[in-house]
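Re: the 71-residue chain
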Amino acid sequence: MHLDTILGLITERENTATATAERLREQISLLTTELARIDQDLADLATTRSTLQNLAAAEFTADDPTVISSA
C-alpha cells in the first residue's frame, strides 16, 4: 500500500469517528436535559407525598379531626 492510501484510510476513519462523537455528544446533551426534568418531577412528587402525609397525620391525630370535602 502506498502512504497516500494509508493516510486516506486514516482520514476517512477519523471523519467517521468525529461524526459519531458529535452525534453521541448531542444525544448525551438531550438525555441530560431530560434526566434533569425527570429528577425535578421526582423531587416534586416526593415533596407532595411528604406534605400530604404530614397534613394527614396531623389531621387524623387531632382531638377534633375535620374532614373537608370539595363536593
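The mean pLDDT is 91.
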